[in-house]
Design a protein that fits this description.
globular; 288 residues; Serine Threonine Protein Phosphatase 5, Tetratricopeptide repeat; 66% helix; mainly alpha
């Protein structure tokens, strides 16, 4: 997959490394090993037989999703809306070509719903805008609808999967007129189902963040749940930013600032760094 992202989609080694949450050096070694394997095994560059295509769809979806994630907030600190639109188109193309796979429709729904918010994701000056602060009048209603239709197609197949559940979560966010109108009960319920299918550390992180919105009184317990993920997500800057948010809510500003500073050190994305610096300016130690 890493080699495909590098050689076929044209993403840089740094961009692919970001997608896999690993260092550039580690990613470069993976690509070298993949190239050597291809040469040693004499693997030809050819279109597989029709019977072999369905088995490869999971990898195809991973490549398309990784491309969109890079477009969502690029390694350069901006968003690449053209790359994002291409990823949405590819996801829809794959779903139409293989309509019997519910996860294909799930990916198409997820990316359309995410891309609908592209116009509100950055300020004119290039600053990243969090979902809670976005001007929802700038969301693309047509794209939101393009996200609902494939989600309905997926539901008809009655084979739920992680991408479909992520798409459903994105759809719930898309239906809320304001942040306060968000149906957190439904989002938390969807995350509970997602965690059963994909109990990865990132899913557990996102579930805890959603629960903190739905049940503010459980913030201390949720922070403890995040602390358990430190070994897995210690290199992942959104993890430390999420911890900072919970620590701040618990009235622990010193620890919150330390977590934000760790997040700042872990990202080289200019827009993300500016967002973290703005949080530190808004909540200097001693102001609470």
């Amino acid at each position: 997959i890493a080699l495909t992202l590098r050689a076929v989609t044209g993403l840089t080694t740094a961009q692919v490394a970001r997608a896999f949450l690993v260092s550039e050096a580690t990613l470069a070694q993976r690509i070298v090993r993949a190239k050597r394997k291809i040469v040693a095994a004499g693997i030809a560059l050819e279109v597989p037989d029709a019977a072999a295509l369905p088995a490869r769809l999971s990898d195809v979806r991973t490549v398309i999703y990784a491309c969109y994630n890079e477009a969502f907030v690029s390694t350069t600190g901006t968003q690449d809306r053209a790359l994002g639109a291409d990823a949405v188109w590819l996801a829809e193309l794959v779903a139409a070509a293989f309509p019997g796979d519910a996860e294909n429709w799930g990916l198409a729904a997820l990316l359309a719903s995410q891309h609908a918010r592209a116009g509100a994701r950055f300020t004119v000056g290039g600053d990243l805008v969090r979902l809670r602060d976005q001007d929802r009048t700038r969301w693309d209603a047509d794209l939101l609808e393009r996200g609902r239709r494939p989600l309905a197609r997926a539901a008809e197949l009655r084979r739920p999967g992680p991408l479909q559940l992520q798409a459903a979560i994105a759809a719930v966010h898309g239906e809320a007129a304001t942040w306060d109108d968000t149906d957190w009960l439904q989002i938390v319920s969807l995350y509970e189902l997602l965690a059963q299918l994909d109990p990865s550390p990132i899913v557990r992180l996102n579930r805890a963040v959603a629960l903190a919105e739905f049940l503010p009184g459980r913030t201390a317990r949720l922070l403890a749940e995040l602390d358990v993920l430190a070994d897995s997500l210690g290199h992942y800057h959104p993890y430390h930013a999420a911890r900072a948010e919970l620590l701040r809510r618990l009235g622990r500003p010193d620890e919150a600032e330390a977590a934000d500073l760790t997040a700042l050190r872990l990202t080289q994305n200019d827009a993300e760094r500016r967002l973290l610096r703005s949080r530190l300016r808004r909540h200097p130690i001693g102001d609470e």
